[in-house]
Amino acid sequence: MTEIKTTNYSMLHKQLKALIEDESNLIAILSNTSALLNDNLDQINWVGFYLLENNELVLGPFQGHPACVHIAIGSGVCGAAVEQDQTQVVADVNAFPGHIACDANSKSEIVIPIHDNKNEIIGVLDIDAPIQSRFDDNDQQQLEQIVNIIEHQLK
Predict the structure, then answer these.
(1) Most buried of the four, 13, 26, 73, 104, by CB within 10 Å?
(2) Cβ atoms of residues 126 and 58 within 8 Å
(3) What is the pTM assigned to this prediction?
(4) Whether pLDDT at 5 is above 80
């Protein structure tokens, strides 16, 4: 039996805006965002952020099991998102060339680049799921809107 995703993204967007509206600290914003997403997204096993530092991605605030700390640009799904400056939706991570298996239970993944006010990438939102094909076009659009809310708050 297939479970039905029940995420109310509209409510999630409103909650995030209210949660971070008076905050300017990047770590505080990302910490609360990862907690909010973890509490509201079903069928996920990791949600968090990697931040660009010294031309590599470094683990930032997250919810889930311990994760890889350093990811090279171009490596894995996160590195590909930065290299291509494009959201990556991967239905089966084991079929993704160069996938970095931080958690063997992860089967699908979405990674969305985050930009500063100069439109330069500062990091990524990374969400893993323990099932294949967890993320669809609607998830992509709605999670890109979550990143847009974060970007707007940082300006």
Answers:
(1) 26
(2) no
(3) 0.93
(4) no
